[in-house]
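Protein: DUF4034 domain-containing protein
Species: Nocardioides lianchengensis
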Amino acid sequence: MPLFSRRPDTPVQVDPHLAADLPLISAAHEGDAHGLAERLSVLRQEGRWHHRHQLVARAARADRGTGWIETWAGWAPGDPDALVARAVTALRIARAAEGAEERLQDASLVVEAAISRAPEDPTTWSTALELAHASEAGPLRIHDVITQAATAAPAGFAWRSTAVELLSSRWFGSLEESWDFAVTSAEIAPQSRLVLLPAYAALSQLRRERTDVAEEMLTEALPPALGYLEASRADEADHVEAASSIAARLVAASRRREAPAVLDLLGDRVDTVVWGTVVGPDPVGAFTGARRAYR
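Structure follows.
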């Protein structure tokens, strides 16, 4: 039986870092978005953009549609948090649909509205990059969006993380371009989670092909990334997601030497969105399988 298809045989904590937030998302999906709206607004005003990004990523589900957001927008017209949730959801619905071109055009209008309302929002710029990719707009459009985002939200992690992947050799650039962008991003705020991005760039390449250059990049990138993970322990919402993002990438790249230390930081806590996105559709099984195999 494949390693990561086995069901977990030890208990894990599923998304414990967002335990206080997830009920707000459930209530919003059921038609009462007041609690979620207040929470997103507070996070936005406090500049806790990535915590907010995590909640938007979980709330904006294609299978939930946009009815709950329309209800929200009805009593809070122009709310920037409702707009970004609508933009992310619209893009996900478009990507899941057959003959998505018209839906992507509709999503583009919502993304533009969200950018106009809150140009400093990293999540909206990340969505704009994903929209350009989904629309097959090509590298010139990708670079244009990156330039705009760098002006409007210079330290935005969400869009810079998306850009690191899109600038890789898998899509519109090269390992060197992705790496240079990641390193430059980390230099903007070297005490922030931006220092994770060089490791993302190196591991994106190593997941597909091991090269000496990528190995050297990972050797350089991991110490500051691990330093950030240690320093972020006090903020569980940030720490679990950040540690998961490095651990899942190390596991996906079969890095048996480096993965155990990061898995130890996580303990029994799993961020299901990160593991589901990076490793596969069974995030709890993937995480538990990694704990067995890499410890």
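Remarks: The two ends are 20 Å apart (CA to CA).
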